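Annotators were shown the component list below and the corresponding predicted structure, then asked to write short factual statements about the assembly.
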Amino acid sequence: MLSDLRQEFILHFGEMGSRWGINRTVGQIYAALFLSEEPLCADDLVGLLGVSRSNVSMSLKELQSWSLVQLKHRPGDRRDFFTTPDDMWQIVRTLVEERKKREIDPTLTKLRQLEMRPGSAEDAYAQARITEMRELIELLTGWYDQMNKLETERLVALLNMGAKLQKFAQSARILPKRTNKTEN
Amino acid sequence: MLSDLRQEFILHFGEMGSRWGINRTVGQIYAALFLSEEPLCADDLVGLLGVSRSNVSMSLKELQSWSLVQLKHRPGDRRDFFTTPDDMWQIVRTLVEERKKREIDPTLTKLRQLEMRPGSAEDAYAQARITEMRELIELLTGWYDQMNKLETERLVALLNMGAKLQKFAQSARILPKRTNKTEN
DNA sequence: TAGATGTTTCAGAAAAAACTGAAACGACTG
DNA sequence: CAGTCGTTTCAGTTTTTTCTGAAACATCTA
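Structure shown to annotators:
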């Protein structure tokens, strides 16, 4: 039912899953869908992966909440079929977007909240460190938002231009660090 | 011993840890070190976090394997003290580097290996998909390697130039896709 | 070398996460 | 409405991961 090639790919993503925050079955289901030209339904996955029906159901729900799978329907068939988007770039964008939402945004919120706190003297260093972290994250996410606006073609072109981009960076004027002093 | 502010930060990173592949104690220890102006020793952390000595020991080892903490020694004191690097950028670089090593590189290896396989007809689609994934990952990591070469100052300047970078991308010539045909 | 101080290891306990089967549910269909 | 087909939920079990305390180890010091 499943060629060695696909088997191996699927198992790899199952294992890999645990290094991310993803559980094995979710990883395997995603991998199976990714490699399948045809949409698959829950029972297909049960057969392919040998896990329980309910596990498949839960895992698909999880994948849907990540917007990583698409629901398809066949005319005259009540079952839900699933695929991954054809466009790999779309997949990457979704993945980054969702991870940002779940991993970065809550942290940013927390950091801002801690920063606001009227700080006792003993916390001066900690608060400075928190600010530093917040600023860095904002810089990175802000930049990411910019990149995300580009259409895929331009983005690919940009990524392909590693060397040229380096040159561009050379020309970038480095702004003096902002200090607390009011400099005139 | 631990102000509310720091307490909260530490707990947040403990929770957050699980969304990454990191366990709670590891996250908490890292957070505690991050906020501490002074290096801390294992027993300090036991006191601060209320976990067992051996847990702290294991977790510190884990953090060391990630190169996320630095060992310090005080003259005339046999104990190991730990800090996080002062430079946030260094932290980010390390983090990305290590995650790449653990999460991307093994996958890339596996993908290449599967791609080489003499493909049976039924695997044609799967293999095409694998190639697509491999190429995309290579593009992204290749680009990352370029960025990683920049000194921090230039990198920051570049990141701060979101808008300008967009314009730059506009000007980027979009190269025609490479095909198998030998074009003259 | 005996003792003091600090770190690491490891087998088992505790906690958390993943998974299952069975039952509930929902929505069409004759 | 009764039956069919498919999905979802959930209490309980299994598996995995994390954590602990005790013992082993290592190094310095009197």
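Statements collected:
1. Residues 178-184 of chain B have pLDDT under 50 and may be disordered.
2. The first strand of chain B starts at residue 40 and ends at 41.
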